[in-house]
């Protein structure tokens, strides 16, 4: 008889879990034009330590499982060239589903993180699509240029992610890079394609996304150097990537991928299990179940 995996106990949650942060009209306008927004010092030193303790404990308990389930039940449907991709970073998805401490942490952050996301995107309700711990190990591969939402199980121009630096993210250890304004080009293509995104898988070639969006290949890019405890928000249709980790240390981040309420299933599996896929009807089923996609923030 097999025993259940040991879950590392974590200390009781201490609130608030983030600093009190607000966005201005100027911030919102800039985000919608450039596709991203930087928040220095989202976390105080003590809050950062709490996030690190909870997230790293959950990652350790997952061991080598990217998802909650075994590989026979759930597979990576977004990335290709998996031998390469497995050396991009240690990726642990939906830690909130297996660790109540992570769920409490994320939901408690909603009055700041969820509210910022809702305001930037101009929506009344933000749900968690999934979370990810992303750890670039020493000498890990770079992350190819890509955009997120074409790989997700719903179609919208209002998806958004927050990327929280648990370590300093530097040019040397693989910080993210954004392509400012690429979101506007993707939006234009979306409308011109009858409200559809072209499929863009993530592989080992840094420039593959430009086979789909060749007009973006000459765009300027910006590195997103962040101190630990700072964060960036980026649109689900912003082109972004990350450098290689050229150091002997790890570069850890916690991310939350978010969506508006009542998104409609579009047939893409992404992080869904085969069991979930069997229960969903394309073009009909809504993502509004708190057991799978908890509300992070709702404007009352």
UniProtKB/TrEMBL annotation:
One example GO MF annotation: metal ion binding
UniProt cofactor(s): Fe cation
Protein's UniProt name: Phytanoyl-CoA dioxygenase
UniProt-listed InterPro entries: Phytyl_CoA_dOase-like
Domain of life of the source: Eukaryota
Source species of the chain: Adineta steineri
